[in-house]
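Review form for a predicted model. The reviewer records the input and the model, then writes brief findings.
Reviewer: anonymous (R2)
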Amino acid sequence: MPKKSSNYLKNNIIQTTMKITARILVVLLLVICHFLNTAISVWSSAVFYFVVALLSVLSVIQFWRSNKPLKINTPEIVFLAFVMYLVINNVFHDTFWSNASLYNYLILLLLYFAFVLLYNSDNSILKFIVHGLFAGFAIELIVGFGQLFGIISNSDLKFTLGGLFGNPGAFGGYLAIVLPFLLVIVYFYKQLLFKSENFLYAIVFCLLCGTSLIVWSDSRGAWIAGFIGIVYVLKQKYKFKTNKLRLLKTKAAKIATIVVLLLAIISICLAIFQYKQESANGRLLIWKVSKPMVIENPLFGNGFGSFEADYGKVQADYFLHGKPSASEVQIADYVTCAYNEFLGMQIESGVIGLLLFVAILYFALFKRQDNTSSEYTIAAKASLIAFVVLSIVSYPFTLIPNLLFFVICLFVIFHIGRYKVVDISKYSKPIVLGWLLLILSLVYASGKQLYGMYYFREGFSKVLKNNLDNGICDYNRAYPFLKNNGEFQFYYGSVLYLKHDYSASIEHLQKSVNLRSDPNAFIILGKALQELKRYPEAEHAYQIAMGITPARLYSKYLLAKLYLEMHQTNKALEMANSIIIQKEKTPTTAGSEIKTEMKVLISQYSKPFVKPSKTTTMSP
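Model under review:
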């Protein structure tokens, strides 16, 4: 008997220790994910991946020790199908290997099943998810107010406010999707059995602060998403009916009410559109120009990261050979995402990927077997609704804190909700081991990328100090791990250009422009080609850069100089004249100097004014 009692006590201690460790890791995961975009992201990323690996292993051990059955429901089957489709589709497109962004995306999606295993052995894990979510939210608020008051500088110096995201739109979007979740925690605090009143007051205070920072972020998408999420929460709390038309007794009254509501909605939409009209028109231009990418491979898409790789080239083709308007020339710029998650998913994963994703949202928001919702489910649905709204005009799924929160919302809705389930306990060991092997393999691959990123950062800092040789040595160390990283290839090619190793520079820059449509990469590539007298290729590179950023002068300036070197004086004069009449998107001293130099060029080579051709100028 004493031996049995001792074994029971020992097992109980082990189980308690594992539960406490898992809870701490969940909170740490939700906090550390906010530090992946900062200057210390290499080290914070290492901690993040370590936590993911440890939490995954711990969830499996806890599940096996609990001896509970393993079940999977219908939406989870669809979710798993979506994950496996992403893996297979990107292997087929050859965009899977050494793709750090895809690895992160898959790791976060697969963490869903870690939460499932943890919840099976410890229901209170939900409370610690709330604590971790609140901690991350509070940290963002502290950083945000620090930036507003000038105490903390934003990582992107173009913006005063950006939180740890660096961008006010991304920052406001994050606050807008988390705020409805925390609002539900406040409304149902007692029902959720949180004991500390101080924690309640802290959440209320942070909600007020978060609301003010959403306003300060100046992000219309965040305003709308947060507002709709809050309306859903209020509807669930106070049970007010959305359909009041039946209270109107006459048909005329109903028609009049509908007309007034429609006019009010249209007026609000127009006001929001006109508030930052250039930004809205920029999104409309992106969606318009993206059409060829949508129809290129509609069924399976072009692979993860293909939008960033191809959009700039497609936009350049539109401005070089299409019929752009004067306003489009001014608003066009280099972009890396579609500003619409559904459009981006269609381009990268095709109709199949998009339908699977929409099916996941359908099960989460509409398909339920019961008419009641737990408080956690209400919170998750409110945030999910805000997610969907924000996804129409922004890029929430490209940010790790957002995607992790999205997975948590799905976990809360799917695993707490009542759906048809299939008992897979018979195959639990191979299934769980397969999942663990996959997520650990992705973590390992991400770790290798991180190792390369460390030497990339080291080399970059040395290059900035004009220590080019040692910088190149670090780049050589990073190359085996980052050969599919467009940004790394750009900087590697650029430093080789500075060393006058033009052939090697072209090799890396060509890889860079295949992976991302950065106009600066095309410009350096054009310069390297020009140095080797490969003029037609240099001209093409400059033209693409010009088409990506048509309102900027530098690529046109380089073309004018190139034409002079090629002894094509008429083309040089046409380009010089187009530069002079071009209205800059943002007037700069460099732009004024370029225009002055072009006037001198014209006076030297031609007395009469040469009217620029439409295909060359892209200007009104």
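Findings: Residues 428-464 form the longest helix (37 residues).
Further findings: The mean pLDDT is 91.
Recommendation: see findings above.
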